[in-house]
Specification:
Blueprint (H helix, E strand, L loop, with lengths): L1 H44 L6 E5 L7 H6 L5 E6 L7 H10 L9 E5 L12 E6 L9 H11 E11 L2 H5 L3 E11 L4 E10 L1
Length: about 200
């Protein structure tokens, strides 16, 4: 009876600590997956200071800021349709929370529509369109606009689950690589595409 009472008391005392420990381990696992994803993305895109990079559908900078941190001398055109989520204040907070490795001065903000962007034609040698393709109502129009702003030898980088979305929109896959979607614990693919 005393042994049972001690066992129950031990469980009651240790249970909150074990739950906290499990949460800590889960957070460490998520952080580790996120860092692995960032490394894969950066290695695949290989940003260098001379690149002219446009990020379409930037949102709060979840994908862009970690990439920018790996090339703090790069300049980025940031494009979205929502200025409440994608703005200098939001991105500055994301930069600060990620270690201040890049500067808000490296980003120029543009706001477009669901069908196109105000970005200048034939200007960007790398276009990022991460974690947004599935949300696009006008995929064909956005990919046409990406082709318009892309330099002739440039590439569009995207992460997508289905190749068909890319080929259906006039893109030719140059390279592909399996990546992690650290938010959903599943595999996705990174694609480097050129225009057909």
């Amino acid at each position: 009876m005393i042994k049972t009472a001690l066992s129950i008391l031990t469980i009651i005392v240790l249970l909150p600590f074990s739950a906290s420990f499990a949460q800590k381990i889960d957070k460490q696992k998520q952080d580790s997956l996120h860092q692995a994803k960032i490394k894969m993305d950066v290695d695949f895109i290989n940003p260098i200071p001379s690149d002219k990079i446009a990020d379409i559908g930037t949102g709060a900078g979840y994908s862009l800021i970690p990439i920018a941190n790996h090339c703090p001398d790069c300049k980025f055109a940031v494009e979205d349709i929502d200025s409440t989520t994608c703005n200098p204040v939001t991105l500055q907070k994301k930069i600060k929370n990620s270690g201040n490795l890049t500067s808000i001065n490296n980003f120029t903000f543009y706001y477009g529509t669901e069908k196109n962007s105000p970005l200048p034609s034939a200007t960007y040698n790398k276009i990022l369109i991460f974690d947004v393709v599935h949300e696009l109502t006008y995929k064909k129009e956005i990919f046409e606009d990406c082709k318009r702003i892309l330099t002739p030898s440039g590439s569009i980088f995207t992460e997508e689950e289905f190749k068909i979305v890319l080929s259906d929109n006039g893109l030719s896959i140059k390279r592909e690589q399996i990546s992690l979607d650290s938010g959903n614990n599943k595999y996705i693919k990174l694609f480097e595409c050129t225009t057909l």
